[in-house]
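Quick review question:
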């Protein structure tokens, strides 16, 4: 496992972080609680020291499982969670008002069984709350010692610039993979210029880039993959298939799995601090961390770059959203 020092901290985090959205049990089909618990334990036992969760993942369940798994190991884990999606009304409305995020934070601390969170991130921008107000509240939590670093997620360039202007912004979490390159346009350059850590989510294309789908998969309406990630749409399948074929060719030559190459591509991008990789079983966790990162040569990078750019050549805007 490769580790990276986080700017301005005394912590070196694993380049592969465990993402725990699917582990929460809602929004993704066929939930296996035993597999979820074992996935977190396996990650921690095999060098992953960075876990990303959120209240909305299983309406608190993901945080509860993470909390149990890190008991007795708290100081060795860089723990990231999020705020600002209202799970208590079950409407999942965006709410980054100081009064709401104060409640959200107290509930997360309880579920995670800890008195501090290493990275506390605004999950989605909230058009109803000025960013400066949210940032002031987050800085207060930081002073109180309840959170160590402040992050945002799914922010546009303008929103990110506003958050940076309010001071103390540590990281941006964004959808970035071979299947989603739009952050390259302005988000990544801004993070580079402002020294903001970049956490890339969805590096396996929610499973698509592991090469396990011979045909385009379809999911039930309640499964997040049916609405959240645009690359699952039928019109993108031919280009996605060609990209997966390219990954498989490189993987075969290297004696590794296609997903290993997809994660390695993300980690090869200078701007990326960590790849947040989801897994639903210990086997998936082990596959996702062993051999990562493979150092890809220029020819392999050029092939992946070309195939990846073909997926959204028509420049359809990203649709992943709550
Ligand atoms: N900030 C945000 O708004 C946001 C949004 C999305 C994600 N995230 C974060 O980023 C993390 C990762 O994103 P993600 O989970 O959506 O996508 P991902 O990491 O690209 O894909 C994870 C999914 O791929 C499948 N998979 C994983 N390893 C595999 C393997 N070795 N072989 C075959 N299949 C495998 C699993 O689903 P199946 O077994 O069901 O195929 C797993 O749940 C999330 O867990 C979350 O922490 C944040």
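Suggested answer, residue by residue:
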């Amino acid at each position: 496992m490769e580790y990276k020092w986080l700017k301005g901290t005394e912590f070196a985090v694993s380049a592969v972080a465990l993402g725990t959205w699917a582990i929460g049990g809602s929004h993704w089909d066929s939930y296996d609680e035993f597999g979820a618990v074992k996935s977190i334990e396996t990650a921690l036992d095999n060098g992953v020291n960075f876990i990303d969760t959120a209240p909305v993942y299983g309406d608190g369940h993901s945080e509860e499982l993470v909390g149990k798994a890190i008991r007795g190991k708290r100081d060795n884990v860089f723990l990231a969670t999020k705020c600002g999606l209202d799970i208590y009304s079950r409407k999942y409305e965006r709410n980054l008002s100081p009064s709401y995020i104060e409640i959200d934070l107290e509930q997360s601390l309880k579920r995670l069984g800890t008195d501090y969170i290493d990275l506390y991130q605004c999950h989605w921008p909230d058009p109803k709350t000025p960013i400066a107000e949210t940032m002031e509240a987050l800085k207060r939590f930081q002073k109180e010692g309840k959170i160590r670093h402040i992050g945002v997620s799914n922010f546009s360039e303008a929103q990110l610039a506003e958050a940076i202007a309010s001071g103390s912004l540590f990281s941006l979490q964004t959808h970035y993979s071979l299947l989603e390159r739009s952050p390259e346009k302005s988000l990544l350059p801004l993070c580079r210029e402002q020294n903001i850590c970049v956490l890339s989510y969805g590096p396996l294309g929610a499973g698509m880039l592991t090469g396990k789908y011979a045909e385009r998969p379809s999911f039930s309406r309640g499964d997040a993959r049916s609405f959240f990630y645009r690359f699952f749409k039928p019109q993108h399948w031919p280009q996605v298939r060609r990209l997966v074929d390219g990954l498989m060719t490189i993987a075969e030559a290297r004696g590794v799995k296609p997903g290993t190459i997809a994660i390695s591509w993300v980690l090869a991008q200078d701007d990326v601090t960590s790849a947040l990789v989801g897994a639903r079983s210990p086997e998936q966790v082990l596959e996702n961390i062993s051999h990562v990162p493979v150092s890809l040569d220029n020819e392999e990078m050029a092939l992946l770059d070309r195939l990846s750019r073909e997926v959204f050549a028509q420049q359809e805007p990203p649709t992943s959203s709550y």
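Why it works: The longest strand covers residues 147-153. The pocket of NAP is lined by residues 19-22, 52, 123, 153-154, 173, 201-207, 210, 212, 259, 276-280, 284, 287-288 (CB under 6 Å).
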